[in-house]
Every structure is written in C-alpha cells, then in structure tokens.
Amino acid sequence: MKLMKGSRLKRGNKSVAQLKKIVKLLRVLDWVADLVIISNVVCIVILLNNETSPQMTKWIEIFLDISLVVLFIELGVRMYYKRNFWRTPGDVFDLVVTTVCAVSFMPSLISLRTLRLVRLIRMLRIFSINKHMRLFSEAMVKSLPRVAWSSGFFGMTLLIYAIIGMDSYGATAPEYFGSLSRSLFTLFQVMSLESWASAVARPIMSVHPLAWLYFVSYILIASYILLSLVAGVITATTVEVYEHEESHKDILTAIKKLQKQVDELSKRLPSENDKKE
C-alpha cells in the first residue's frame, strides 16, 4: 500500500511539474504581449503625428501587422493551455479586441479613418497588461448595474427639475428654459457648475428673487449627493474586487504549502525501484 501511495505521489508531482511549466510559459507569453502592446501604443502615437515620413510610416505599419500576428499566436497558445479561457472576462476581451483589429489586414475594404480607429482599439488591450488596471476595469464593469440604478434616480430628478424650471422660468429665460430639451441641457450645465451663477441663475434671480432655492437645491442633489453616491458605488465595488483577488492569493499560498508537504512525504516513502532491489 505504501508503495502504491508513493507511486501515486510521484505521478502527482509530475503533473504538478507540468502545470508549473505551463504557468511559466503563460507568464512569458504575458510579458511578450505586454511588450508588443506597449510598442503598438508608441507606434500608433507616432502614426498620428502628421510629420511622420512616408518611409517610417511604411515600416511602422509592417511592424503593427507583425505585432497583430504575434498577439494572435499568443492568444492561440493561451486558449490551448487555459481550460477556463472562455470563462475569464479578460481573455475574452483580449480575443474580441484582437479579432476586431484583424480588419487592418484588409486596408482595401476600409477607409483610412476606419483603419486608424481599428488601430486605436488595439490600445484597449493595455487595460489587461497591468494587474491594477485590470482590477480597476473589472470593478468598473461590475459596478455598472448599481450605477445604472443611480443614473435612473438622477434622470428622474433631472426630469422633475426640468419641468419645474420650464413652467416657472420659461417666459423669463426662454433661451434656457423655453422647452424641455433646453431645460435639460441647462440643468446639465448647472450640474457641471460651469458658469451656472453668472450665466443662468443671476439673470433669472433679478426677476424671480427666490429662484436661488431652485438652483441651490438642484446643485446639492445632483452635483453633491448623486455624484458622491456614484463615486461611493464604484469605490465599494473596487474594494470588493481587490478583496476577492487577495483571497485568491491566500488560496494559492495554502496550495503551495500543501505541495511542499506532499513533496516531503513522497521523499520519505520508498519508490518502486527500491522495492525491486
């Protein structure tokens, strides 16, 4: 029984060694992809400069095409070795972005402006090359449902104040509150605190002295309470994502400790060759 357990442990050690090699390979591929993406960003910035010579532009375009092939190879290797590739949002995002960028191989089918936009899309992969950028983008995506509810509440508040402003100050300031669309745009300007007092509020207050209650209450609700609520939602989601990442680290640390114990135990057990001798 001990010999059978020893052989099983050795087989387990071989599989663990293979997994370690795969992990190292994936890390090397990540580093290669990081360098390619960063160099692509630099090349795209150079291409957007109108002073770039035609010869340099040609070489940069060749390099961008080669880089895209390298990124496809990197994704193919990652898809082959990672079983949870399709369940990882970052991997699926990289695949979608790289696939969209493949349109650059067909310049005759698209215009120059579209080609530039496609190349700019390639820069989105920079969000997946850094741990903190990846976690922050993941937190932004996860916070969208909560932010949507906050945006709905803000939309209702904006609509109510727009109707009140149109009914109360439409005749006094038709350029700001003459219609519902103008009222909505004016309130959006007031929310951004862009010249709201001198351009909007004070001319109306010269005719309606109590109009300051309308503007001040709206600014308190829209600019301070609601925006702080949205910022709090995003912050709370970011903290949750980072805590989840830290829990994964603890699990990996426990697995490494368990692997060391298994290695020590396998060394103590006799092997099959010892049995034959």
UniProtKB/TrEMBL annotation:
<feature type="transmembrane region" description="Helical">
    <location>
        <begin position="92"/>
        <end position="110"/>
    </location>
</feature>
<feature type="transmembrane region" description="Helical">
    <location>
        <begin position="147"/>
        <end position="164"/>
    </location>
</feature>
<keyword id="KW-0175">Coiled coil</keyword>
<dbReference type="InterPro" id="IPR005821">
    <property type="entry name" value="Ion_trans_dom"/>
</dbReference>
<keyword id="KW-1133">Transmembrane helix</keyword>
<feature type="transmembrane region" description="Helical">
    <location>
        <begin position="60"/>
        <end position="80"/>
    </location>
</feature>
<dbReference type="GO" id="GO:0001518">
    <property type="term" value="C:voltage-gated sodium channel complex"/>
</dbReference>
<keyword id="KW-0812">Transmembrane</keyword>
<feature type="transmembrane region" description="Helical">
    <location>
        <begin position="211"/>
        <end position="234"/>
    </location>
</feature>
<keyword id="KW-0472">Membrane</keyword>
<dbReference type="Pfam" id="PF00520">
    <property type="entry name" value="Ion_trans"/>
</dbReference>
<feature type="coiled-coil region">
    <location>
        <begin position="248"/>
        <end position="275"/>
    </location>
</feature>
<dbReference type="InterPro" id="IPR027359">
    <property type="entry name" value="Volt_channel_dom_sf"/>
</dbReference>
<feature type="domain" description="Ion transport">
    <location>
        <begin position="30"/>
        <end position="245"/>
    </location>
</feature>
<dbReference type="InterPro" id="IPR043203">
    <property type="entry name" value="VGCC_Ca_Na"/>
</dbReference>
<protein>
    <submittedName>
        <fullName>Transporter, cation channel family protein</fullName>
    </submittedName>
</protein>
<dbReference type="GO" id="GO:0005248">
    <property type="term" value="F:voltage-gated sodium channel activity"/>
</dbReference>
<feature type="transmembrane region" description="Helical">
    <location>
        <begin position="28"/>
        <end position="48"/>
    </location>
</feature>
